């Protein structure tokens, strides 16, 4: 647990255009952390956080179903009224089979009508026409987008259930993949540095009087 980076998401383009990618604790929608992107100038390509393939990580594939996709975000000092995708900040979802896209990449832009927003959601729906053997989520700031955005609680869900984004709440560190009922109100998970058997970090569970019983 000593690598203080988020599990299941990789940095894309850090340093390009002054981009800083942070496993953040200064702002979050849920629990204690989020995935933060800050950029002060144009970059040569989109920057952000790219998930691993969540189609076949712990199951075989994503079924051909209607999926709700999107998540929570907060912005500060971003460029407004983007004219094209290079100026947009967005959740981007990708679905592939045998290396070919089943549908076009699904870009779900955040609100850039104002420079700063509190935590808000954006969602869309996509019908995946065939079994997806590869799927990913890219938390993107376009080449000509600037400012700061925090992403949290990413969603890719269907009825019946077929799969979803791992570490969607951005709480797990590298090397500690797992799952719990985030938001179920049973207890609170924290990647903590206030106690450790060895090294500097541990997994901390807290159940408060206001939490439900397991």
Any descriptors?
six-stranded antiparallel sheet, five-stranded antiparallel sheet, Jelly Rolls, single chain, 214 residues, globular, mainly beta
Could you characterize the architecture of this molecule?
The protein has 214 residues and is an all-beta fold. It is built from no helices and 13 strands. The strands form three sheets. Strands 1, 4, 6, 7, 8 and 10 form a six-stranded antiparallel β-sheet that branches. Strands 2-3-11-5-9 form a five-stranded antiparallel β-sheet, with no helix packed on it. Strands 12-13 form a two-stranded antiparallel ribbon. The mean pLDDT is 86.
CATH class: Mainly Beta
* SS-based class: mainly beta
CATH superfamily: Galactose-binding domain-like
Low-confidence stretches: none
CATH architecture group name: Sandwich
Mean pLDDT: 86
| N to C succession of SSEs | EEEEEEEEEEEEE
The overall number of domains is 1
CATH topology: Jelly Rolls
Shape: globular
């Amino acid at each position: 647990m000593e690598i203080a980076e988020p599990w299941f998401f990789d940095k894309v383009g850090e340093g390009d255009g002054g981009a800083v990618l942070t496993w953040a604790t200064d702002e979050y929608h849920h629990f204690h952390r989020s995935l933060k992107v800050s950029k002060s100038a144009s970059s040569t390509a989109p920057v952000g956080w790219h998930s691993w393939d969540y189609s076949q990580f712990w199951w075989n594939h994503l079924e051909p179903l209607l999926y709700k996709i999107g998540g929570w975000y907060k912005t500060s000092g971003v460029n407004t009224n983007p004219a094209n995708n290079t100026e947009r900040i967005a959740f981007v979802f990708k679905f592939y089979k045998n290396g070919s896209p089943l549908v076009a990449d699904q870009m779900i832009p955040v609100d850039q009508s104002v420079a700063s927003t509190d935590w808000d959601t954006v969602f869309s729906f996509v019908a995946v026409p065939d079994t997806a053997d590869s799927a990913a989520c890219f938390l993107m700031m376009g080449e000509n987008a600037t400012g700061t955005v925090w992403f949290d609680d990413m969603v890719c869900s269907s009825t019946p259930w077929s799969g979803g984004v791992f570490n969607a709440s951005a709480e797990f560190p590298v090397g500690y993949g797992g799952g719990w009922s985030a938001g179920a109100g049973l207890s609170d998970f924290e990647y903590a540095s206030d106690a450790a058997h060895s090294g500097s970090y541990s997994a901390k569970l807290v159940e408060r009087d206001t939490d439900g019983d397991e």
